[in-house]
């Protein structure tokens, strides 16, 4: 079974996608479950995790409704304000919703790089850890030292780094990111998604060889037990089709994995991490 551990669905007219612009027409349109279904069929992907793309509770409700109607969606990573006084009650309500599996603040877009270290945020992350709900980490490399401090403060948090924390693939630079991501990997409860790399590369001329040093590094750091594949569709369409993203991952990882490792990276780890 192949599980795509990271994709999005959205309806542009809902109006709460702060990043959406008509200047990027490939993204400024609807992408719904029935658009993705035939693509998954062609790619041989069985189940998916849909991840929030708006910083609103309304979008989380929208995604949970879509998940209830689409059999291939196995889980929803939603959004809550980690400084909301009602965070605990709102999380309890989400836990009663079918297919809710995790939360993701859009850390890369927040003005405060130290957001994760705010006292209220840390308190609610500790509560999240107590519930066992997954936490998706959406960051740039500059945020990783702060993530490390947060993980030291909340060691029981079950977390996953999205998109390898967006390393500078276009420049080929590894230094700094490589050391920090290895320190993150030293926390045994933290996983990593092999996703989102094509949009960090030279988008019109990228090749799997551009991505390979970064993927090999996280495989060395996290091991086959803590990596999971994600397409980042439809964001990936800025640089590649769904199948091109999957084929790039397979061309890099498959020669480095045995059959058991492939089963884990392409489905088993996402199933276990998100408790599908």
Automatic annotation (TrEMBL):
Q: What InterPro entries does this protein's entry cite? A: Amidohydro-rel (IPR006680), Metal_Hydrolase (IPR032466), Metallo-dep_Lactonases (IPR052350)
Task: Tell me if Hydrolase is a UniProt keyword of this record.
Answer: yes
Q: Which domain of life is it from?
A: Bacteria
Q: Which UniProt keywords are listed?
A: Hydrolase
A Pfam match is Amidohydro_2
Task: Please state every residue range assigned to the domain named Amidohydrolase-related.
Answer: 3-276
Which molecular function GO terms apply here?
hydrolase activity
Give the family from UniProt: Belongs to the metallo-dependent hydrolases superfamily.
* Protein name, as recorded: Amidohydrolase
